[in-house]
Design brief:
CATH architecture of one domain: Clam
Radius of gyration: 21 Å
Structural class: alpha+beta
Distance between the termini: 71 Å
Order of helices and strands: HEEEEEEEEEEEEHEHEE
Strand content: 35-45%
CATH class of one domain: Mainly Beta
Strand order of the largest sheet: 8-9-10-11-12-1-2-3-5-6-7-13
CATH topology of one domain: outer membrane lipoprotein receptor (LolB), chain A
Helix content: 10-25%
Length: 266
């Protein structure tokens, strides 16, 4: 009889949580652009029964001061101050990323795709983060392998950026090359604040041009090629100056996708 009562208590507790819009998580984000430049951002995750919302904002670029003169110009150069908002519809399994791409396209886009289905391997490692017992898992997604720590104490299958699909909240993420990293800053659970209104967030904003993920990727690749050619033409007549120009999609979170492999531009 006691076991039946205990089971009912767990069921009711989980059901009540699933009906409550009660989670807010803040993350530190870092991007190791190269050996000298680190980009720092902040991220906020809000979870509800129907929607998940993640917003990332640029904070600053840091340099260790050891940059040396080179005959290679990287057209990224640590100046990517874009932001993004990711809205996932948990019912129809769709994802919309609203972003400003200021490096090549210099415009606002609403990039639409199906919610990514990440294939996870749960590893036999555990540690404590922010007083939560966490398990380790890894996945390879669009050309980059990530290792994460998640806790089943918060039964939300979500995390920063596009990460989801584990039986608990993701608190820490790092790709194996050490380029991208997310670390939890704070967790409010349950969250009773009213900082965001999902009814407002889900509405289309005419500021953002609707586009599929595939078309956005192609448009961006074409813009990189065009910028490379423009830089070459502008510097062609500089006497005594020889430069090479480069950009690699390896620097991006998703260096490959369903339609293209990693690309290097010179």
């Amino acid at each position: 009889m006691k076991s039946v009562i205990f089971f009912c208590f767990l069921f009711v507790s989980f059901f009540c949580f699933s009906q409550d819009n009660s989670l807010k998580v803040e993350y530190y984000e870092t991007v190791q652009q190269n050996s000298e430049i680190i980009i720092k951002k902040s991220g906020k995750l809000y979870f509800s029964k129907d929607y998940t919302f993640y917003k990332s904002e640029f904070i600053k670029t840091e340099s260790n001061g050891s940059q040396k003169k080179s005959d290679v110009i990287n057209i990224n150069n640590g100046k990517n101050k874009d932001f993004s908002e990711i809205l996932i519809n948990n019912k129809n399994k769709t994802l919309v990323e609203r972003l400003y791409e200021n490096l090549f396209l210099k415009n606002y886009y609403s990039v639409n795709e199906a919610k990514p289905q990440m294939k996870w391997i749960i590893l036999n490692e555990q540690k404590k983060i922010s007083n939560y017992n966490c398990k380790k898992a890894k996945t390879t997604f669009r050309g980059r392998t990530y290792e994460v720590w998640f806790t089943e104490k918060i039964p939300v299958s979500s995390g920063p950026w596009k990460f989801s699909g584990l039986p608990g909240l993701i608190l820490s993420v790092e790709d194996v090359e050490g380029v991208y990293k997310w670390e939890v800053k704070s967790i409010q659970y349950p969250f009773k604040g009213k900082e965001i209104d999902f009814n407002t967030i889900i509405k289309d904003n005419p500021k953002f041009k609707k586009i599929s993920y595939k078309d956005f990727d192609k448009k961006r690749i074409d813009a990189i090629k065009a910028k490379i050619e423009l830089i070459k033409s502008r510097s062609a007549n500089r006497d005594g100056m020889k430069f090479s120009y480069e950009y690699s999609t390896f620097l991006e979170k998703e260096p490959v996708n369903e339609w293209r492999a990693q690309q290097d531009f010179k």
